[in-house]
Amino acid sequence: MSSNVSVVPFSGKTLRSHDTAGFQLTEKFFEPGRRNSNHAHANAYLEVTLEGGYILYRGHRAQTCYPWTIVYHPVGEVHSHSVPLAGVRILIVEIGPQELPWIRECCRFAEDSMTSEGSGPGRIAARLYREFIHSDEVSPLVVEAYVLELLADILRHKTEVSPKRAPEWLRHADKLIRAKFVERLTLADIAREVGIHPVNLAQEYRRHYKRTVGNQIRQLRMEYASEQISQTNSSLADIALASGFSDQSHFTVAFKNFTGTTPSAYRCICRETNLSKHP
Questions:
Q1: How many CA atoms lie within 13 A of 241 on its CB side?
Q2: What SS3 state is found at 209?
């Protein structure tokens, strides 16, 4: 972590909070249009998007987080957020320092950031949240069990999607998708390139990477478009074409469905934030 990056407490409006022996759970609301600068937190934590969405920036990489996206942040990870016009509710699960040794002992990925969008971790997170808001005297034990289960599932997921475990042809397919996501790729095109049947490609890609080829391409396009909107002066029409969309209208609908706001509104937020930082 850079010495110029601040270690700060969590911002946002606290809606409710609950402590267990090893974890602190806090539900936060972040107002529409909010964007913060690079920062870090003292503890490792899980971040579960409950409602709305936001853009997470880690270095030059932008990722859209929508409901039931779960992000694991290691200690001291540098990142920033941008919240679209709708605002966002997030459940933050801070991991106490006493819990980190066993996590590090179990899995080397505990020092890496991780994102999960699969249905399995999502279901665990939903049960955790229900217990969090409907608590009784036994809830601390139940909540702690759900947190541990969620951590284990995410760590297992990270191990499963490691490129070292994927066959060579599947890693080749993933590299091809990442290199050509703005092009009009089809399953047949990718399968032909790596010498495998399209059905096998679809099945194995989802099994290893926990998302379909189509969802991966959509995610990559949205991340690229978000970066271009926030960091360049290119027209939205040019960004739409550069991101792989046939026209600006199609791009606008897809961007709003994915982020909760339009490209033009998102650009306004980014510009207003930059002006407030550099008056």
A1: 4
A2: helix
Chain segment 109-135, per-residue pLDDT in tens: 567 778 876 667 888 888 899 889 888
Order the strands of the 13-19 sheet from edge to edge: 13-19, 23-30, 88-95, 45-52, 70-73, 114-116
Least confident segment among 48-52, 80-84, 113-117: 113-117
> What is the C-alpha to C-alpha distance for residues 150 and 120, in angstroms, rounded to an integer?
9
pLDDT over 50 at 161, yes or no: no
Strand partners, 61: 58
Q: Cβ distance 95 to 25 under 8 Å?
A: no
Q: How far is Cα 134 from Cα 172, in angstroms, rounded to an integer?
A: 47
pTM, full prediction: 0.61
In angstroms, rounded to a whole number, what is the distance separating the alpha carbons of residues 111 and 74? 5
Measured distance CA(88)–CA(154) in Å, rounded: 22
Residue 256, classed as helix, strand or coil, is helix
Angle at 94 between CA 90 and CA 99, to 5 degrees: 150
Q: Nearest CA to 273 among 31, 35, 32, 6?
A: 35
CA torsion sign for 214, 217, 219, 225 is negative
Residue with tokens 């409950």: 50
Under 8 Å between Cβ of 223 and 69:
no
Please count the other Cβ atoms lying within 10 Å of the Cβ belonging to residue 203: 11
Residue 13 near residue 28 (C-beta atoms within 8 A): yes
Which residues, 6+ apart, have CB-to-CB distance to 142 below 8 Å?
A: 131
Distances (CA, A) of 132 to 32, 67, 117, 210, 223: 25, 17, 21, 27, 32
